[in-house]
Amino acid sequence: MICGKCGAQIAEDFRFCPHCGAPISGGEVSGAAAAHADVMAVKSVAVPVMVTVPGGTFIMGIGEYNRKISLSAFYMSETPVTQQQYEYIMGKNPSKLKGLNRPVECVNWAEALIYCNLLSIKQGLVPCYTIGNVTDLGTFDTTSPVWKRVVCNFTTNGYRLPTEAEWEYAARGGRNSSQMHFAGSDNINDVAWYGENSDIHSHDVGCKKPNGLRLYDMCGNVAEWCWDYMGELPAQAQTNPRGPQIGSMHVKRGGSWLDDMQQCSVFFRSGSAPVGKSSSLGFRVCCSMVESII
Predict the structure, then answer these.
(1) If we measure between CA atoms, which residue out of 117, 124, 122 comes closest to residue 153?
(2) Sorting pLDDT into bands at 50, 70 and 90, what band is 1?
(3) 3-state class percentages of the chain: helix first, strand second, coil last, to nearest 5
(4) Are 43 and 204 in contact, with CB atoms under 8 Å apart?
(5) For residue 152, which of 126, 123, 119 has the smallest C-alpha distance?
(6) 268 φ, ψ to 5°?
(7) Comparing C-alpha atoms, which of 5, 292, 11, 28 is closest to residue 157?
(8) Labelling 203: which of 60, 83, 131, 153 has CA 20 to 30 A away?
(9) Closest CA to 253 of 69, 243, 139
(10) Would you say 23 and 3 are in contact if contact means Cβ atoms under 8 Å apart?
(11) How many Cβ atoms sit within 10 Å of the Cβ of residue 272?
(12) How far apart are CA 30 and CA 45, in angstroms?
């Protein structure tokens, strides 16, 4: 049977979904639970829908740690990559909290890059990532030290992870960036699934309000991998910063269904080892707007 609430496959004799806890009746979520099922404001599609993020200048960070950052225009997926979208390209779904329209999770940093390149090829775009001259990154063990040699060509039109600066700029509304604590609101319950309202699991994407750029789930649901190594923000004004050249941790942003309010703010920074996997960690994709690169 299929759970009508979260989409997980469950055994015929289950009366409650072991993934989301919804009561099961005839293969569907029963009346009361169905009435409270999440309602997506986006279409369920196999390839990420991209939103234009116009270029501009903003103050990254908060308080004494803020920095003036200028960015070229780019495209960003309107939601985190879903399990349906990941499986369409990769042929598998590694997620622990199953649901085709939930964010994919339990994906490490290298696997996110492999997805980006394969999606680029399938869409007829030029892959961004190479190790040596190789773009078929699936030939490398995702836990190998060779991934320290991966290079991102930001001048190609393929899919890639956002830089940390791009992520924060987009989360805060882009050119019209605000000082709101969450992506689109100062009320976290309007825009994010987090530790206090998630019922201890992820949710279908696009069920909370978007921010001003029509980007959903920038805060909460799952934290999102960024391209950059974790390090101090640049002290001076920067244009298209891409983080430190070396490091042992990669940035993740946005917080998750497991986290508290502070960790889900647009300002909060944290990192994870590139081999790290978690049911609270996923990613979304970007593309450079090649003709607009500063």
Answers:
(1) 117
(2) low
(3) 20, 20, 60
(4) no
(5) 126
(6) -70, 135
(7) 292
(8) 60
(9) 243
(10) no
(11) 18
(12) 26
- Residue 67: Cβ within 10 Å count: 17
Tokens 């990559």 appear where? 81
CA distance readout (Å), 56 to 2, 53, 60, 117 = 45, 9, 12, 27
What does the pLDDT look like over 250-272, one tens digit per residue?
Answer: 999 999 999 999 999 999 999 99
Alpha carbon distance 280, 224 (integer Å): 9
The Cα 55–Cα 274 span in angstroms is 29
- Segment 55-111, tens digit of pLDDT: 999 999 877 667 899 999 999 999 999 999 999 999 999 999 999 999 999 999 999
Find where tokens 């030029």 sit.
Answer: 126
As a whole number of angstroms, the distance between CA 126 and CA 144 comes to 24
Handedness of CA 220, 224, 228, 229 (dihedral sign): positive
Side by side, the strands of the sheet bearing 250-253 are 269-272, 250-253, 223-229, 281-282
Written as one letter, the residue type at 186 is D
